[in-house]
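Request: Give me one sample?
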Amino acid sequence: MIYTFYEQIQMIFYFMILGIYLFIMMDTINTIFYKIKVLNYILQFISWIIIDIICIKAIDTISNGYVPIYIILFFALGCLIYKKYLKEKGYISIEI
């Protein structure tokens, strides 16, 4: 499947946002339930299943199921952007 340059830029942006979303959701679950270990593990398992379903539906919607290698790299880049800039600067910097 051949996409135009504009469509590829859109896919890159959406996959970077999807990577940031993934880590925001995982940090939120870990922050809210970090003291209760068993509940934390159960909620992590359930949230991974839900996040996987959301990611699969997003991939199908964004690129019609076509995932080239560079899109996976931009998904990982979104995860790294969150880890480097957003996590330390303010989203999950509050200790409960």
In short: The chain is about 80% helix and 0% strand.
